[in-house]
Amino acid sequence: MAFHAEGLVAIIVFYLAILAVGIWAAWKTKNTGSEGDRSEAIIVGGRDIGLLVGGFTMTATWVGGGYINGTAEAVYVPGYGLAWAQAPIGYSLSLVLGGLFFAKPMRSKGYVTMLDPFQQLYGKRMGGLLFIPALMGEMFWAAAIFSALGATISVIIDINVNISVIISALIATMYTLVGGLYSVAYTDVVQLFCIFLGLWISVPFAMSHPAVTDIGLTAVHQVHQAPWLGSINSLDIYTWLDNFLLLTLGGIPWQAYFQRVLSSSSATYAQVLSFLAAFGCLVMALPAVLIGAIGASTAWNETEYGVPDPMTKKEADMILPIVLQYLCPVYISFFGLGAVSAAVMSSADSSILSASSMFARNIYQLSFRQNASDREIVWVMRITVFLFGASATAMALLASSVYGLWYLSSDLVYIIIFPQLLCVLFIKGTNTYGAIAGYLFGLVLRITGGEPYLYLQPLIYYPGCYPDENNIYIQRFPFKTLAMLTSFFTNIIVSYLAKYLFESGTLPPKLDFLDAVVARYSREHMDKATLVKSDNIVLNELAPVNPRHSLTLSSTFTNKEAFNYVDSSPELSNTEDN
Questions:
Q1: Which of 420, 456, 373 is closest to 252 using CA atoms?
Q2: What is the CA radius of gyration of the chain?
Q3: Cα separation of 187 and 132, whole Å?
Q4: Topology with regard to the membrane (predicted)?
Q5: Digit-coded pLDDT (tens) for 45-55
Q6: Is residue 337 within 8 Å of residue 164, measured between CB atoms?
Q7: For residue range 201-249, what is the model confidence (pLDDT) as tens digits?
Q8: In this structure, what are the phi and psi dihedrals at residue 456, rounded to the nearest 5 degrees?
Q9: Contact, 115 vs 259, CB < 8 A?
Q10: Nearest to 321 by CA among 335, 307, 308
Q11: What is the pLDDT of residue 430?
Q12: What is the dihedral of CA 109, 113, 119, 122, to 10 degrees?
């Protein structure tokens, strides 16, 4: 394949434009937030992200390189087809459910990150434990899409994969570093526009290529391969449901999602943003579905690609850039490449910012340096943006099974964080003992189920499992959902059991080493009258005082929005935020 100077120039121009928008957004909003809350402004954008920008940035976070490439691949692969392209419907339903049930309680209580309610209810230790799967999910996802971008660029313009990955990561890290959520949000608007325009321009050219059969015919009839509509074998129904639930429910507890929810100007806006993004995800999946169908309808021996076809060459995961390269004019393929690059960067920057936000606030600030100044937190965020960006780049370049690691970590988000989020928001009475027990049970059940992408043999062989070509057993039983439900009910049962044992006197208070039942009960029932009767405080000490601008674990969650919240109308909430 020849080196394409025009393609390289097009990519450079596109990257410089994205970088310029990111730096402009950072400059435009550099004075947002007072001296005392600059870190919060970087994490949640001053809570003034409007509907237009918010809808674009939330959609762009989901419509990433994995979303676009993965949807096209699923439609193309014989035997799977559109029936197995679950991401568009799964993620759209995830956003709808998030808007209906999770956006309003999270936004109305004024949290800053997804981990805040966990640390508020379960303590800093549990927050640290939940940070691990959340961090793994964000980091491995960023690494996986950087890896996909490098391969995509190398297919079309034939430059070194490592160089393309490093440059892409540097651009995304740089504008995230200087502008935080503002830069990410404004660049998402440009990137989503490029994705939409670039892919839709490519589709008519690819569809009109002489080697492409009518996709309406190949949808239901076998021409070059099995029909691209696909089918679900009766033996695979439970696997399909397990994966669908993982996408739908496991797509909710991500910091990248809640960062947009918490940055919206009101609780109602947070819900509307979720619904807009759900619609956007469906619309943005359409060109990827069509490109996958075109790939399945192409006689590849009649193109410059030649024989064998991409499936035989084990290049099915690259079907989208292959279609752009061999079925479109050169200038169109370069424009489509810009769309794919935009898709990757729009997800990668979100993941890097999400990981650094959780670390700076929930680990560094709330666990170790509760009295740290706001300036210190801002610098911690900047340093971790760079470190996490560099780590994701290194994994993309060095790890041979980045996608396998991401699949496993996304499973842990579904199995561990989702049931914990349900409990902390909707189940009254859960405590740290139940949370730890649920965490461990879910983790053990997931790991013992095996992972083919990492060549991990299962320790528990569920009904219907079978060996693949590498003699690694594949589970047909929906064991991931079983692990999630086990984690959920374990949390509830152990929490109520611990509460009963301590409150009934069966266990002495000194055994409440996590201060999750006895000490918490005492704090909840300690009022001013009790304090006065104890003779250790005088009445004038109860007079209201101006609080220090310190950030203790308890005061950091005392947000005026949580107490003043009456109505979720935009007008009221905008007043509260100010």
A1: 420
A2: 25
A3: 28
A4: Multi-pass membrane protein
A5: 778 777 888 88
A6: no
A7: 999 999 999 999 999 999 999 998 999 999 999 989 999 999 999 999 9
A8: -95, 120
A9: no
A10: 335
A11: 94
A12: 70
